Amino acid sequence: MRTMRHTKKKIAATRFADVVSVDDFINAQTRKNTEKCTLRDVKLFEEYLLSRKVVFIDISDIDPKELNTYLAEFFISARRADGTDYEPSTLRAQLSSIDRYLRQKHYEHSLILDKAFQTARNALSAKQKSLKKAGKGNRPNAARGLQQEEITALYNKDVLSLNTPRTLINTLWWNNTLYFGMRSGQEHRDMRWGDVTLHTDPSTQKQYVEYNERQTKTRSGIDPNNIRKVSPKAYSTSGDPHDARDPCSAFKKYQMMRPKSMNVDGAPFYLSIRTATQITSADWYKSQPLGMNTLSTIMKSMSREAALSEESKKLTNHSARKTTVRRLKSAKFENTDIQQLTGHKNVQSIEHYDELSPARQKSMFNALHISAGNSKASVTTVSPSSTSLVSPQMATSAHTCTSGQYHQFNASQSSTSKTVFPGNFSFTSSTVNFNFSTLSPTQKCKRPRVIYSDDSD
């Protein structure tokens, strides 16, 4: 009997872990950035209440009617420490933070939904409109995607390479973000060595690395059915072990240069780099995770090292994810396909990544701009009944033009180097603009008018 009880106790100890604090466990699952922003915004609101000499122990103890008034005044008056106005989106985030805090305190009302706080929400909307009129809300410092020439520069300047411990970390981070669509912050910090695995495609015998997603911003684990439909993969491109652009070569080099004890599934993916005196030919990294600050500013560090454009201050870790979406959209992939790679919760979120590249903007300007030289080139008198404006040799390249339009023809597009127009006019390898605004409109045939006499009288 005693033996049976002892066995049951051993089974219970194996199956059930000790619980120290339920609240501590719940709080530990809260995303660190969310918790940090919540506490920061609540502290700012508390500072405002103290400036108004409001007596309170906790903001959750304030009567809803009074809290509604305080919040309305707070949104209208709040400014940064340097006296400048907040961005409209920042004020909206502050409302969400305070509401989140009150919900954690089991407050009886919702700041976002209940009528009791309609005045506060109206004040926030009015303040946002006022800031927009003042030129705020355009997100001048928003992260941008990388241009192709910038990516090439990162490789050419050995910022992305397999040659040093630092550049190898850079390359792994870039590949994970670009090919797996990972978010820039917590997802990389939570990443473990077992999340990326090396495989061989049985049909082609080519290798690829596959990413197994952990908890993310949009898939926290609360809904067991909310999972990625596909596991992102990055395929070997050359098989050259020294090729930094081959994601499989980078992964295998990193595996070889990590401590053997850290090549286990639960070990951190990104490891700290040994000092110059500690580095050996087969051991580049320490058995501890890479620093959070180093990982969160890795794109800024790379852009400075490669001396990218003067707009490099807009290159942040999020820029790599933006580059993923932009390149896939430029390649005409459907938003639903992109969503499965990047892991966005809503397909509409993909539209927020649309942006015109500088080269594309220049092309649009050239399409709209008519230079002074082009405006003078015109055909003066052309009869609508005359022969075709272009010769047979140009017929395949000509476009249909209507009255009031310009038509541009590049002679190099024709099948012959010299093209002759009616009237012995010729040109060779040049661009000519024709103004058809002087063409007479096509004469319309008038409908015959028939008058019928009425003999009824």
Question: Can I get a quick summary?
Answer:
The protein has 457 residues and is mainly alpha-helical. It has helices at residues 2-15, 22-28, 32-51, 64-77, 88-104, 118-133, 148-156, 165-180, 186-190, 247-257, 292-296, 298-305, 317-330, 335-342, 358-368, 372-376, and strands at residues 196-200, 207-211, 233-235, 271-273, 285-289, 406-410, 418-421, 425-428, 431-435.
Walk me through this protein's architecture:
Helix content is 39%, strand content 9%. It has 457 residues and is mainly α. The strands form 4 sheets. Strands 1-2-3 form a 3-stranded antiparallel sheet, covered by helices on one side. A two-stranded antiparallel sheet has the order 4-5. The chain has a two-stranded antiparallel ribbon with strand order 6-9. β7 (418-421) and β8 (425-428) form a beta hairpin. α5 (88-104) packs antiparallel against α6, α8 (165-180) crosses α10 (247-257) and α8 (165-180) packs across α13 (317-330). The chain starts with a helix and ends in a 22-residue tail after the last strand.
Helix and strand arrangement:
Layout: H1 2-15, H2 22-28, H3 32-51, H4 64-77, H5 88-104, H6 118-133, H7 148-156, H8 165-180, H9 186-190, E1 196-200, E2 207-211, E3 233-235, H10 247-257, E4 271-273, E5 285-289, H11 292-296, H12 298-305, H13 317-330, H14 335-342, H15 358-368, H16 372-376, E6 406-410, E7 418-421, E8 425-428, E9 431-435
Antiparallel strand pairs: 1-2, 2-3, 4-5, 6-9, 7-8
Helix pairs in contact: 3-5, 4-6, 5-6, 8-10, 8-13
